[in-house]
Amino acid sequence: MLCLVITITSSFVGFSFSHRLYKRKEVLEQFVIELKNALTQVRYSTDSLAKIFSKKFNGYYFDDETDFFVQWLKMLKIYENELSKKDIEMLSSFAKNLGTSDLDGEINNLNMYIELLNNSIKEAQNNINLKSKLYRTLGMSFGLALSIMLF
Q1: What 3-state class would DSSP assign to 64?
Q2: What kind and span of H or E run contains 22?
Q3: Minimal CA–CA distance to 15: which of 149, 147, 143?
Q4: What is the dihedral of CA 52, 58, 83, 65, to 10 degrees?
Q5: pLDDT, tens digit (0-9, with 9 covering 90-100), for 50-76
Q6: Is the pTM value of this prediction over 0.90?
Q7: Three-class secondary structure of residue 65 per DSSP
């Protein structure tokens, strides 16, 4: 019975590591969608950043009363388990640079970060292809090996 519990537990750990790879890609894709929506709104409206992002942005609501960058960092904390440090740094620098230039500069900035996110999505897909099966297999193999040693 203990061997079965060890095998199932280690398999679950392997599957959770594998799932995190998929979740990262999913969150990055959602950020691309949201930034594309923001790009459209920046082009055709004169609203503040908080109003542009005031709708539910990946499950987070922005308001006009608090500094946008502070709110953005708080929103990124929600995704710190799914995203890599590199992703969080990139998205932090996006918000830090947002609102610092004219309309053309903002559009170029949004386009640049959309492209960077697309590159991160490609990297995430490569990680899925390379590591997902490895994590699941290693989890199960470790559990079986530990069970055999205990048996």
Answers
A1: coil
A2: helix 2-44
A3: 143
A4: 50
A5: 567 666 666 677 777 778 788 888 888
A6: no
A7: coil
> How many Cβ atoms are within 10 Å of 11's Cβ, its own excluded?
19
Task: Give residues with Cβ within 8 angstroms of 68, minimum separation 6.
Answer: 49, 50, 53, 62, 95, 98, 99
Structural domain boundaries of the chain?
Answer: 22-130
**Residue 7 confidence (pLDDT):** 85
* In contact, 98 and 49? CB cutoff 8 Å: yes
Output the pLDDT for position 48. Answer: 62
Reported as a single tens digit per residue, the pLDDT across 69-96 is 888 888 889 888 899 999 999 999 988 8
User: How far apart, in Å, do the first and last CA atoms of the chain sit?
Assistant: 11
Sign of CA dihedral 139, 143, 144, 145: positive
Determine the 3-state secondary structure of 56 from DSSP: coil
